[in-house]
Amino acid sequence: MSPQLPLNWPTPAHARFDEFDSEGNEGVVAALQSLLESLSRQAFDGAPLLVVGPDGAGKTHLAIATASAARAAGVGTAYIALSRWSDFDVDALVALSSQDLVVIDEIEHCAGRRDAEVAVFDLFNRCRDEGRALLLLSDQSPAQLPLQLPDLRSRLNAATLHALNPLPEDARRRLVQRRARARGFDLDDTVLDFLFRRHRRDLPALLDLVDRIDRESLARQRRVTVPLVRAVLEEGPGLKSSQS
């Protein structure tokens, strides 16, 4: 029996539009909210959207926020990250066109795999023919993707492209502090400065670190200080290399 693609997806509490700092990316957020509005009014015009941005810019955050908001509004929605491609077969992926909105995250993971490229191409065609909305997210532009299938590159080039910019450091600091306060503690400037010097600066890694700091602070019954953060970094992933 062919594996089924799930119509449920992980929904972290912070993966919402109101938890996304849109500084420098107001146009991308507006386009996604316009997509949701058109779907809720059953007035979608059929143009696929492609959001391109570097790792850590917030693509998955926006993908899940869009999918979750659509589902909450009663829109039939599917979300899949293609990094999990090995879990699913071609027919299951193409079958997602039965949903009103299909969100495909990490589209770069189909590049160089002809079966995956053909499946995504077929899904493009099904969504177009059946009037379904298609939202794709990638860390590379269509021209940069090492695709084997010229027709898929053509489809991606025809999508409405939105560039997602990395958040500036002051915005990332605000979000990290917001996550800490949501968990019941503050990060003073000394701790924040140390964290940003020593840890990877992409937002998902920073927010994950805040969660780890919270757990360790509770487990050790210690305030959040530089020594505690240093201990957490030494025990887990994310510490910058000396060549960073």
Automatic annotation (TrEMBL):
<dbReference type="Pfam" id="PF00308">
    <property type="entry name" value="Bac_DnaA"/>
</dbReference>
<feature type="domain" description="Chromosomal replication initiator protein DnaA ATPAse">
    <location>
        <begin position="23"/>
        <end position="158"/>
    </location>
</feature>
<dbReference type="InterPro" id="IPR027417">
    <property type="entry name" value="P-loop_NTPase"/>
</dbReference>
<dbReference type="GO" id="GO:0006270">
    <property type="term" value="P:DNA replication initiation"/>
</dbReference>
<protein>
    <submittedName>
        <fullName>Regulatory inactivation of DnaA Hda protein</fullName>
    </submittedName>
</protein>
<dbReference type="InterPro" id="IPR055199">
    <property type="entry name" value="Hda_lid"/>
</dbReference>
<dbReference type="InterPro" id="IPR017788">
    <property type="entry name" value="Hda"/>
</dbReference>
<feature type="domain" description="Hda lid">
    <location>
        <begin position="170"/>
        <end position="233"/>
    </location>
</feature>
<dbReference type="GO" id="GO:0032297">
    <property type="term" value="P:negative regulation of DNA-templated DNA replication initiation"/>
</dbReference>
<dbReference type="InterPro" id="IPR013317">
    <property type="entry name" value="DnaA_dom"/>
</dbReference>
<dbReference type="Pfam" id="PF22688">
    <property type="entry name" value="Hda_lid"/>
</dbReference>
